[in-house]
Amino acid sequence: MYNSKNISEIEGKQYDLVVSAGNRADSFRINNNGDADRSEIDHLVDTVLTAEIGELVLISTVCVYPAGGAPDENATLSERGLTPYGANRLHQERRFTTSVPTTVVRLPQLYGANLKKGVVYDLANDYRVEHIRPAGEFQHYDVRRLWGDIEIARAEGLKSLNVATPPISNETLAREVFGRDISGQVPPEPESPFAQMYTRNMTTAHAALFGASEAYLNTMEDELEGLRTFARASAEERN
């Protein structure tokens, strides 16, 4: 209902449920302009809180966890060691959760129709594939699952949900899903100093609620099969 142009119109409104997914996502720019990004976030939070809200769902990010380890929802959170992008989104989590009943939903890499960034998009569209680092790992999530998973989290009264899927190397993704061999590939530019400053292995303590086991919402094979289905559909659309 709202975007950056009309968000001021939320003032004084009353809602049983508000879903906030209004943050900018251009992490490269944000990591080099962290103060400006935090000001934008504070303005968004201040504006949203002018409404009377019964419940809020906040779409957040894996980037609130630093590199290393396999943190779940019980991990202690700190801005120390995070990128500006991650630190600012943790700051937003704290502001909302201390002001209104909130379910925080932390996302990994997304794939799906109309999403035009990320390694899955690049491989599916043969876009800048030479810049992909074979050994890099990401956790991939089909955005079509999102609202169903959010409804489970809300029904169970979860304060936070890590949308955790098994990490897959870029080399494995390219080979198993797109039939491409990128092993040994060396991108022409150095890696961003921010690129590895968040965990590639976010886990969840709530897998059983989603019919899963261990620390993820699905298995690696399920994740790969979902990616293959998406890849086939993308290829059919292009043809």
Q: What share of the residues lie within helices?
A: 25-40%
Shape: globular
User: Total helix count?
Assistant: 7
Q: Trace the largest sheet across and list its strands.
A: 1-2-3-6
Radius of gyration: 18 Å
Taking the alpha carbons of the first and last residues, their distance comes to 34 Å
Structural class: alpha/beta
In round numbers, the mean pLDDT is 96
Stretches with pLDDT under 50, minimum 5 residues: none
Instruction: Sketch the topology as an H/E string, one letter per element.
Output: EHHEHEEHEHEEHH
Number of strands: 7
For the report, how would you describe the main beta sheet? 4 strands, parallel
Percent strand: 15-25%
Features of this protein?
239 residues, alpha/beta, 4-stranded parallel sheet, 3-stranded mixed sheet, 33% helix
Characterize the structure shown.
- With 239 residues, the chain is α/β, with parallel strands linked by helices.
- Helix content is 33%, strand content 16%.
- It has helices at 27-31, 34-48, 84-97, 119-124, 146-155, 170-178, 220-238, and strands at 14-20, 52-61, 102-107, 109-111, 137-142, 160-162, 167-169.
- Strands 1-2-3-6 form a four-stranded parallel beta sheet.
- Helix 6 crosses helix 7 (220-238).
- The radius of gyration is 18 Å and the shape is globular.
- InterPro entries: Epimerase_deHydtase, NAD(P)-bd_dom_sf.
- This is NAD-dependent epimerase/dehydratase family protein.
- It holds the Pfam family Epimerase.
